[in-house]
Design goal:
single chain, 468 residues, alpha/beta, seven-stranded mixed beta sheet, four-stranded antiparallel beta sheet
């Protein structure tokens, strides 16, 4: 008997989670053979110079002028030619698509360590908004795995995977490098990737059947700015015969979410893996030159461009969401890609204020020996949402939410209540403060389970009801 049937309400999260079959892990032998082949090719074809060196621009508040972009990263022609030859060899030696390795559709989230509490919020939101897709949570290694968490998330139709089970992660010096490998190693053929701090505000299930995806096989979302890459970037990846400004007017991508058909765009995915393999030493700097956005995000469109493969870039400009009553940013509100004609929000990439209940309302968590976090927003009088938490007011601007016909904040708090009250991060004080804020802010009511539910071990479950 399920908790849902024992309670007086039907939790959408419970109902959906019970119907999802978690995917089987990818075949370790086949995946290991494929990765060894790729890694050998990468090791034999290093870009030059291997350590390009990162130097930030004088100002990150204004986009640099063209002359500064062109001269910012000194690169010798001979090095660019050597990198171009290595790039050609990598393309020649990409292994064939492993037909038996991947199948189906699913969501991949890269979490682990301090990112896991952020991920729990978005994971809960997926089920709260009705998403029925299976989810794989990837982490670097066992050290980044919170004890008991992987058992916890199985009840939501989700499963943990470790990159270290399939590759040597000790050589990965940047977390940015892990994203593409989590996509590459996932069991799904069709992948929706989400960053740990991404909070969906609309059900993403329809994406895989939308013409914007079926026509191209890749969906990317725009970032704020144009390309700031080095002039030799197009030459190294085969888009020009010399240093060039051919990419200068392209919109950069924001990889807090992306959708990828691995079979259709296998070579581009492997090429993006190569760029990330040498990302911190070479390609991240070649692509952004230390301007805002240094990291994995533009390795994906560059790989697609290099392979001359079609993809869909969401045409709607992202919107920045601000804290109610302030000019402090919360995150990037990205559009539903299924409708290219009209903007409707689907993903909140909360890269500025990250939605973790421990970061919001925990008291004393900075002294937690096992799992410390910085002082919470509630503990810091100068925090941008301190007043909102103390006065129990909304963090999102309600007028803005009404204009976009969404109201995700109550559901986000339901997801965080689950973390505070019924997860491996459970804390009685944190749970009480969370429920108090929800009661005062959204008029939620919390009804305890009946006698039978308590006898069967579901005493920590409650019905969260909205006042009529």
């Amino acid at each position: 008997m399920s908790p849902t049937s024992l309670l007086s309400c039907n939790s959408k999260r419970d109902l959906i989670s019970q119907s999802i079959v978690t995917p089987k892990p990818p075949n370790k032998k086949i995946l290991g053979k494929m990765w060894t082949s790729l890694q050998d090719t990468f090791d034999q074809n290093k870009p030059q110079p291997l350590n390009l060196g990162l130097k930030n621009f004088d100002s990150l508040s204004e986009f640099p002028p063209l002359e500064d972009i062109q001269s910012h990263t000194p690169l010798e022609r001979a090095d660019a030619e050597a990198s171009r030859r290595s790039h050609i060899e990598v393309l020649k030696n990409i292994p064939p698509y492993p037909q038996e390795l991947y199948k189906g559709r699913g969501i991949v989230i890269l979490a682990g360590g301090r990112f896991s509490p952020f991920a729990t919020t978005g994971m809960g939101m997926l089920r709260e908004i009705g998403c029925t897709l299976p989810v794989e949570i990837w982490m670097k290694d066992k050290q980044e795995e919170k004890a008991g968490w992987c058992k916890d998330i199985k009840q939501d139709g989700m499963i943990c995977r470790r990159l270290s089970d399939y590759m040597d992660t000790s050589q990965m010096e940047s977390g940015y490098q892990l994203k593409v490998n989590s996509i590459l190693f996932s069991s799904f053929e069709h992948v929706l990737f989400l960053d740990a701090d991404n909070v969906p505000v609309k059900n993403p299930d329809p994406i895989f059947d939308a013409p914007t995806y079926t026509d191209t096989g890749v969906i990317l979302w725009p970032d704020y700015w144009k390309h700031s890459g080095a002039p030799y970037l197009p030459f190294e990846v085969g888009l020009s015969d010399d240093a060039s400004e051919v990419l200068r007017q392209d919109q950069t991508a924001e990889s807090g979410q992306l959708v990828w058909d691995k079979k259709r765009h296998w070579k581009a995915l492997c090429l993006a893996t190569y760029y990330n393999y040498y990302g911190p030493q070479h390609y991240y700097t070649l692509i952004s030159q230390g301007w805002a956005g240094w990291g994995d995000k533009d390795t994906f469109p560059i790989a697609l461009r290099a392979m001359k493969e079609e993809f869909f870039m969401v045409p709607h400009q992202l919107r920045t969401l601000f804290v109610n009553g302030t000019t402090v940013g919360i995150g990037m509100l990205q559009a539903d890609p299924t409708d290219p004609t009209e903007y409707a929000p689907m993903f909140l990439h909360s890269n500025m204020i990250k939605w973790s209940i421990r970061n919001f309302l925990c008291i004393g968590c900075s002294f937690d020996q096992e799992d410390p976090v910085p002082m919470s927003f509630l503990e810091r009088p100068d925090a941008p949402i301190n007043t909102h938490l103390k006065q129990h007011s909304r963090i999102f601007k309600q007028a803005e939410m009404n204009f976009m016909h969404i109201d995700p904040e109550p559901l986000i708090w339901k997801s965080m209540e689950h973390t505070a009250c019924r997860s491996v991060w459970r804390d009685d004080g944190l749970c009480r403060r969370t429920r108090l804020h929800m009661s005062e802010t959204f008029k939620h009511r919390f009804e305890p389970p009946g006698v039978m539910a308590r006898l069967l071990g579901y005493g920590d479950r409650v019905c969260i009801k909205e006042s009529i």
